[in-house]
């Protein structure tokens, strides 16, 4: 009887994290292939960059693509806006930060694809 109890407890200890992980990935409403409509989005993405930054220049076409598609995204030059960069703790650029009502919800450091940035609006990364 004790061996059965130990086996059940061991199984529960192993299975619980696995089941919770699987549930967290399958319960999301957002599919990576699903396109997010810019009309009903809350918040905006702040794209922190600088003119002298090669990685920022590389990320700029993604910013332009999202902006031209109507997504709420703003470019913030860290040299021109050091107070805003300090508020969000910018230590490296480029950075994309999803902000709702002035509060950071999530961020991506470095370059990212347009689809990855669209996932920020759904609370993903």
TrEMBL record:
GO terms of molecular function: protein-disulfide reductase activity
Signal peptide: 1-20
Keyword S-adenosyl-L-methionine recorded: no
GO cellular component, one term: cytoplasm
The keyword Transmembrane helix is annotated on this UniProt entry: no
Domain of life: Bacteria
InterPro entries assigned to the protein according to its UniProt record, in alphabetical order: Thioredoxin-like_sf, Thioredoxin_domain
Keywords: Signal
Domain Thioredoxin, chain residue ranges per copy: 16-125
Pfam families reported in the protein's UniProt record: Thioredoxin
SUPFAM superfamilies noted in UniProt: Thioredoxin-like (SSF52833)
Name of the featured protein: Thioredoxin
């Amino acid at each position: 009887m004790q061996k059965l109890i130990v086996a059940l407890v061991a199984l529960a200890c192993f299975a619980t994290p696995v089941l919770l992980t699987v549930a967290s990935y399958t319960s999301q409403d957002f599919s990576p292939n699903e396109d997010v409509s810019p009309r009903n989005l809350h918040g905006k993405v702040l794209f922190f960059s600088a003119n002298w930054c090669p990685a920022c220049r590389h990320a700029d076409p993604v910013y332009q693509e999202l902006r031209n598609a109507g997504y709420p995204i703003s470019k913030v030059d860290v040299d021109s806006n050091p107070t805003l960069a300090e508020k969000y703790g910018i230590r490296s650029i480029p950075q994309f930060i999803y902000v709702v009502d002035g509060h950071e919800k999530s961020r991506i450091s470095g370059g990212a694809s347009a689809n990855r940035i669209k996932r920020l609006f759904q609370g993903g990364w």
